[in-house]
Amino acid sequence: MRPQDIVILLKIITLDNIKWQYRDLASSLSISISEISESLIRSHLAGLVDESRRIVHRQSLLEFIEHGLQYVFPQAPGTLVTGIPTAHSHIFFEKKFSSDLPFVWPDDNGSVRGLAITPLYKGVTVAVRRDEHLYKLLACIDIIRIGRVREIKVALAELKKAILL
Predict the structure, then answer these.
(1) What are 89-117's pLDDT values in tens digits?
(2) Average confidence (pLDDT) over 15-26
(3) In whole angstroms, what is the distance from residue 91 CA to residue 100 CA?
């Protein structure tokens, strides 16, 4: 698995049974079509999508996120940068959690100064500007990557609502 695989699977979930093609995912996520294809092959081998590579095995994805994500894609906040709020600093979570400094994905066009969180892939900041639902899910993912137990429980509850419907 590669970090962008999680983003691609979450994007498919946000499409909510809308028919899509690889080029649709590639365009909306700023990832090449070949990377989308390779990612879905990896996800199929991992048991996270079906044979058609179009239907996400939601329970399996949630189990991976809950039990493996923080070990496979760990993260520690970095230096102070300008960027787009993520994790606890996402608008949905900022009232639920307190932190000394915001957490951000580095982005030259960002509006917030905070501690850098390396996104799962370099195009995340472009993708979240196009899709608020994906943005919230990726903020949940970052909470799991850097948060404490209580924060992780809240993020997992939000992911369960979105993934398991």
Answers:
(1) 999 998 888 778 999 999 999 999 999 99
(2) 93
(3) 16
CA distance 112 to 108: 10
Crossing angle between the packed helical segments 3-14 and 132-146, to the nearest 10 degrees: 140
Instruction: Please compute the mean of the pLDDT values over residues 63-70 and round it to a whole number.
Output: 96
Output the 3-class SS for 66-108: HHCHHHHCCCCCCCEEEEEECHHHCCCCCCCCCCCCCEEEECC
Other CB atoms closer than 10 Å to residue 23's CB: what's the count?
11
* Closest listed residue to residue 143, CA positions, set 102, 62, 88: 88
Strand residue runs (E) in the chain: 80-85, 103-106, 112-116
CB atoms within 10 A of CB 154: 16
Full-model pTM: 0.95
CA–CA gap between residue 85 and residue 9 (Å, rounded)? 22
- Are the C-beta atoms of 29 and 8 separated by less than 8 Å? yes
Q: 136 burial class (0-12, 13-18, 19+ CB within 10 angstroms)?
A: buried
Compute the distance between CA of residue 115 and CA of residue 64 in angstroms, rounded to an integer: 26
